[in-house]
Amino acid sequence: MLEKEAGLAAGQDDAREDVYHRDNKRERAGQPSSLSNSNSTTADPALTRAKNCSDNNVRGVGRAPYVIRVLIALKLKGIEYEFVEEVVGKKSELLLKSNPVHKKIPVLLHHGKPICESLVIVQYIDEVWSSGAPVILPVDPYTRAVHRFWAQFVDDKLPPGIRTLRGMGGDGDKDQAVEQLSAALQLLEEAFVKLSQGKNYFGGDSVGYLDVALVSHVGWVKAAEKIAGVSILDKAKFPNLVAWAHRLCAHPAVADAIPHADKFVEFSLKYGSFTKPTINSGAK
Amino acid sequence: MLEKEAGLAAGQDDAREDVYHRDNKRERAGQPSSLSNSNSTTADPALTRAKNCSDNNVRGVGRAPYVIRVLIALKLKGIEYEFVEEVVGKKSELLLKSNPVHKKIPVLLHHGKPICESLVIVQYIDEVWSSGAPVILPVDPYTRAVHRFWAQFVDDKLPPGIRTLRGMGGDGDKDQAVEQLSAALQLLEEAFVKLSQGKNYFGGDSVGYLDVALVSHVGWVKAAEKIAGVSILDKAKFPNLVAWAHRLCAHPAVADAIPHADKFVEFSLKYGSFTKPTINSGAK
Asked: Which residues does the UniProt record annotate as the domain GST C-terminal (chains A, B) (predicted)?
C-alpha cells in the first residue's frame, strides 16, 4: 500500500497542508536551510568515504515527519546532504520533475537520481551507505520483517488521529482520535518491550528502522496534545515508550532533526489547524 | 503506511469480504488445499537446500491478491510450503494468534514464526532464501527503491477502483473507477517500458518484486471488467502491460497461483458483489 504521505504535498491546499517546518540549529542561527549540512554525528573516521559523497539533496518541508525520518537516516549514516526547503503551497519545478507520480515530499536526489517515499528512501540510504556506517535495518531477516511490519503500522495508525486532533478533519471526533492513538501506542509499548529486550531502542543497542519511522511522528503527537488539550503519550500508560522517546530525541542524529513541539503548534496554527491550542497541564 | 489489505481479513464481514479463492491444480483435482505443495518450478538442483526447508506454512484465502503474491514468491524460490485455506468469515485460532494486530491474511509461518503483510513477506522470502535461488528484489539499490515505490503505488491505486467495479463500495462511481484505474495503468505502462528495457519483465530478464506485486492484482482487474462490463486492461491502450500480463501469467511460478478470471467473478458474486456480471465483449 502506498505510504500515506497524504497532505504532505507542497502546493495542494495551503490552509490544510499537513506539513511541518524545520527548526534545526542552522535555521535558528538564521542560515538558509539550503546550505550543506555537516552534522555533529560524522566524527567516525570509518565514515569518511561515505561522507565524501556530497551529492545528496533532500527536498522537503522540515516539519513533515516523512522528511524528518530521511534526515535522521542520513545523520545516522553520517552522510553530508543539502536540505532544500520546499515552499508550502508552491511545488517547485524540481519537485514536480523528481516525483511526477505523487508530487510529494520528501524526495532524495542522489547524484541527481530521485528516490521518493520516505520508508523507501530510508531503506535506500541504508543499502547504499552500508559499508562502515551503522546499519538501520536489522541484519536478521525476521527482525527486519518485524520492523517493516511495525513501521507500516505506525504510518497507518498515527497520522489520522494526529490530523483529527489538529482540527484537520478525519473520520472521528477528538475522543475517538485519542482512543485510536492510545490503542496504537499500547501496541507499540508492548512491541518495544519485545524488540528492545531491555536495551535503549527498538533496534536494541542502536537506532533501528522502526526507531526512525516512529520517532519522526513524536513531535506531532506532542503538538497534537497541546493543540487539542489532551494527554496521549502518557508516562503512566506507556512508561517504556515515553522513556524511549525522551532518550531517542536526545540522540545526536535525532535532536537536530526534530523541532520542539511548540514549533509544530505554531506551524499548525499558521497552516491549517481549525482549533486554538489549549495548553493543558496534562499534556506532555 | 500500512499496506491496505483491507477487506482481506477472514471473518469480518462475509458478504463484503474482498477475498479470493484459489483454483490451482490441487484444488481442481479435488485435493484439500492444506496439502504440501510441490510445485513444478523446483527442479533446479541449486535449490535443493532451500527446498529442504518444509516448515513453511502460508495461511490465507487463495484468491486474495496479497496471498497470491506470497505463493508466487515461494514458487519463484522453489520453496516447498503448506497452504492452509482460511475459511471466509471465520478467523482461525492460528490466524488470530499469528497476526493479533491486524487479524488479516496472509501470514507466513516459517519455523512457527509468523510474518505478516504481503510485501513484508515477499521481502522476507527473498532475504531468507537468497543463496542459490533467483533474486526477487533487484540487486541494485536504486532499482530496488524504484520497485518498492511502484509496488506501493500498485497497492494504493488498484484495489479501490477494483472494489468499486465489483460493487463493493468506494468513493466514486463506475466511470470514475475506470478512469482512476486507467490513469494508474497508464503510469505502469510507462514504468514498464523504462524498467524492463525491452526485456520480458519489470525485473528485466527475470521476474522481480514489482512483477510479483502487480501480477497478483491482474486476476481481479479482469474479473472487475467482467462484473462491471467495462474494459480496463486494454491492449490498444496498454500494449506493453497487456503483453507483460499474458507472458507473466504463463510463467510456471505464476500460472498455478492465479485462478482464471471467471473464478474471481464466481467468488465475487458469492461473497459480496452487489452487481450482476455483464459479460461485455469489450472486456478482456
From this structure: 140-274
In this structure, are A230 and A180 located in the same domain? yes
User: Would you say A117 and A64 are in contact if contact means Cβ atoms under 8 Å apart?
Assistant: no
B46, amino acid identity: A
CB-CB neighbours of B239 under 10 Å? 11
Exposed / middle / buried, residue B62 (Cβ in 10 Å: 0-12, 13-18, 19+): buried
Please indicate, yes or no, if residue B78 is contained in any of the structural domains: yes
Chain B interface test: which of A1, A124, A128 (most B C-beta within 10 Å): A1
pLDDT higher than threshold 90 for residue B263: no
Mean pLDDT of chain B: 78
Q: Determine, yes or no, domain membership for B193.
A: yes
- Tell me the pLDDT tens digit for each residue of A204-249: 999 999 999 999 999 989 989 999 999 999 999 999 999 999 999 9
Count of helix runs (H) and strand runs (E) in chain B: 11, 5
Please give the model's pTM, rounded to 2 decimal places: 0.80
Q: How are beta strands B36-37 and B81-85 bridged, if at all?
A: antiparallel
Q: Compute the CA torsion angle A177, A179, A184, A189 (nearest 10 deg).
A: 130
How far is the alpha carbon of B186 from chain A, nearest alpha carbon, in Å? 11
Report the pLDDT value the prediction gives residue B167, as an integer from 0 to 100.
Answer: 84
> DSSP code of A87?
P
Does the CA dihedral A58-A60-A61-A62 come out positive or negative? negative
Provide Rg for chain B, Cα atoms. Answer: 18
B59 lies in the same domain as B177 = no
Residue whose grid cell is 507542497: A10
Residues of B in contact with A3 (CB under 8 A): 1, 152
Provide the number of structural domains found in chain A: 2
| Residues on chain B touching A2 (C-beta within 8 angstroms) | 1, 152-153, 155-157
Looking at this protein, which amino acid is placed at residue A181?
Answer: L
Q: How far is CA B209 from CA A47, A60, B80, B255, B257, in A?
A: 31, 28, 20, 17, 16
- Which residues pair with residue A60 across a beta bridge? A85
Range of the domain at A262: 141-271
With contacts defined as CB-CB under 8 Å, which chain B residues touch A156?
1-2
In angstroms, rounded to a whole number, what is the distance separating the alpha carbons of residues A265 and A284? 13
User: Between A124, A145, A156, which is nearest B120 by CB?
Assistant: A145
Question: How much helix, strand and coil, in percent to the nearest 5, is found in chain A?
Answer: 50, 10, 45
List the CATH number of the domain containing A26: 3.40.30.10
Q: Are B140 and B158 in contact (CB under 8 A)?
A: no
CA-angle at B120, arms to B95 and A161, nearest 5°? 80
Of A127, A128, A156, the CB nearest to B1: A156
Examine residue A4 and state whether it is found in any structural domain, yes or no: no
- CA–CA gap between residue A116 and residue A109 (Å, rounded): 9
* A124 Cα to chain B: minimum distance (Å): 6
**A87: left (phi > 0), else alpha (psi -120 to 50), else beta?**
beta
Q: Which of A97, A128, A159 is the last residue of a domain?
A: A128
Phi–psi pair at B177, nearest 5 degrees: -65, -45
Is ipTM strictly over 0.85?
A: no
